[in-house]
Amino acid sequence: MPVPLAPYPTPPAPYSPPAANGAQSQLVCSGCRNLLLYPVGATSVCCAVCNAVTAVPPPGTEMAQLVCGGCHTLLMYIRGATSVQCSCCHTVNLALEANQVAHVNCGNCRMLLMYQYGARSVKCAVCNFVTSVGGSASAAEQKFNS
C-alpha cells in the first residue's frame, strides 16, 4: 500500500511594507549622515552602515533639505525653519523657502547663482565675480578684488 507524501509546507508570506504600493520616504541618518530610505508608516529607521537609530518625523511633517555652507553635508529640517545648525561642523545655515530666493547667471562665467530676495549683488563661488542683481540697471557687474 502506498504511503501518502506529506504536503510541502507553505512558504512564509513575503514581507510587504505597511504602505499600499510600497511608498517610501527618506531622511538623513543621525549618526553617519547617509540618506536613508524607509517605508511610509515607520516610526524609526536603523542605518545599515552605522547602526544608529533615527526617529522618523510625525506624519504630515513637511521636510526640506539644504547643503551646509561649512562642510557641504546634506541637512534635512522641518520646512518653515529659519535656520538650521549642522550637527557635523556646527555652522548655522540660513534656511530660505523657494519664494525667498532668486537666481541669476554669473556675469563672468555664467554659473547659475542663487541669492536672497533684496540682495543688491551676489558673489560667484567659482570665479569670485560679483554680479549686481538689485538697484539701478546702471549698476553693472564689478570684479571682486581679493
TrEMBL record:
Tell me which residues make up the Zinc finger LSD1-type domain: 29-53, 68-92, 106-130
Q: Where in or outside the cell is it found?
A: Nucleus
Where mainly found?
Answer: nucleus
Keywords assigned by UniProt, alphabetized? Nucleus
Name of protein: Zinc finger LSD1-type domain-containing protein
Source organism: Hibiscus sabdariffa
